[in-house]
Amino acid sequence: MTPVIALVGRPNVGKSTLFNQMTRSRDALVADFPGLTRDRKYGDGNYEGQRFIVIDTGGLTGDEEGLDAEMARQSLQAVEEADIVLFLVDARAGLTAGDETIANHLRRSGKQAHLVVNKTDGQDPDIAAADFYQLGFESTFLIAASHNRGIRSLLEELLPTPEEGAEQDSASKYPGIRIGVVGRPNVGKSTLVNRMLGEDRVVVYDMPGTTRDSVYIPYERQGKEYTLIDTAGVRRRKNVREAVEKFSIIKTLQAIEDAHVVLLVIDAREGLVDQDLHLIGFVLDAGRSLVIAVNKWDGMDPEERARVKEQVQRRLDFLDYADKHYISALHGSGVGVMYESVQACYDSAMAKWPTNRLTAILQDAVAQHQPPMVQGRRIKLRFAHQGGSNPPRIVVHGNQVEALPGSYKRYLENTFRKVLDVTGSPIRFEFKSGENPYANKVERMTPRQRVKKDNDLKKGRRVKKTRQKSVKR
């Protein structure tokens, strides 16, 4: 399960700065005045292969009124959703009454909370944090979020170490191919789940928000094991009012992480909207295989169908490798065909390729289209091997690979995808430069070699002086 980390504290203690550092983005607004963040903001982070979700919150003071009271309610709800709570304090401002109020609330909540002393740059960290030890937290971290200092050790301590048996435990609990059904509210996700199961397993009602939690349903079809994950609909953040719905969004994002293949359901009557694209972006960031299901295809006239198809093809041009199905979950038309796409996506995501084959594909691609020159030197790509699955990860070794342009990386991705016949799954590339074996090697010479070198240097200086004299004459 993907851990959820909430950042809480007084206004202007650096929560948004830490959020941007942990997610490696600039999604949260940062300015040197309090009260800038009002709504909760969710971000996706990744550290050493361990994914996590971060929640940025507004500042808490303890005596909120009006708008500040609503911001405080948002922050307290984030504490309830989180698995780990990071309580940020300002080392420059010292311990305040507001900090003590927040600490008392965190103790009553029973959540796993950690004290994070921020803004320790420019001063002795131990002296700066001395006042905060009286709050009584078992673990205290000293960081400088604006300089990205101390955050690495913070994540190493907080995030669980991925274990080799974790995937096997998840596979035994949810056997077969795990299919996550996601989409906006009321697009027909639960109806599609019931149709794929052949029974009324989940509640279906013509009202958005019927499904509140992610439901895992193992079943068997034609001798193969599957697990369907029915999720809550994800609306735009400004339309989310109920606390339960906000918690459901977290469960949906975690279900995407658990799935092997994600079925994104789109309402054909409403067409492709921006929220669908946001969901697609999260699925691709998570590295999951994707199948597009355009639902409610029944009852539409030919002109409307042509318009919807044109819109899907135009706006999802970057997903030309993902299969798109036009279905009716209510009547079952086109649903059975999706299993072929799901199987192809799973096979592509979990495929294993030998190193010699990947290296041969790389050499053929380089021979057909050479990498560019950098400072008069050609970038050389030597060999490739597989670095992981779900999503497939290909590691390419060479020299000057850090200067490889994005266009050439896309060319390699398209070439590998075409030759390996990868369907529905994104491909991750890692480029590594070989280390210079002579970089830190000390030159050792015998006495005879040293005498010869000195003589050569003296001879070179005599030749240089002779040439200078001849030029003066």
UniProtKB/TrEMBL annotation:
State if Membrane is listed as a keyword.
no
Locate the EngA-type G domain: which residues? 3-166, 177-350
Q: Where do Basic residues bias regions lie?
A: 459-473
Stretches the record annotates as Disordered: 439-473
Keyword GTP-binding appears in the UniProt entry: yes
Q: Which UniProt keywords apply?
A: GTP-binding, Hydrolase, Nucleotide-binding, Repeat, Ribosome biogenesis
What SMART domains does this protein's entry cite? AAA
Which residues are GTP 1-binding? 9-16, 56-60, 118-121
What GO molecular functions are on record for this protein? Answer: hydrolase activity
Q: Which domain of life is it from?
A: Bacteria
Q: Where does GTP 2 bind?
A: 183-190, 230-234, 295-298
Pfam families, from UniProt? KH_dom-like (PF14714), MMR_HSR1 (PF01926)
Spell out the family assignment given in the record's similarity comment: Belongs to the TRAFAC class TrmE-Era-EngA-EngB-Septin-like GTPase superfamily. EngA (Der) GTPase family.
Give the function comment from the record: GTPase that plays an essential role in the late steps of ribosome biogenesis.
Protein name as annotated = GTPase Der
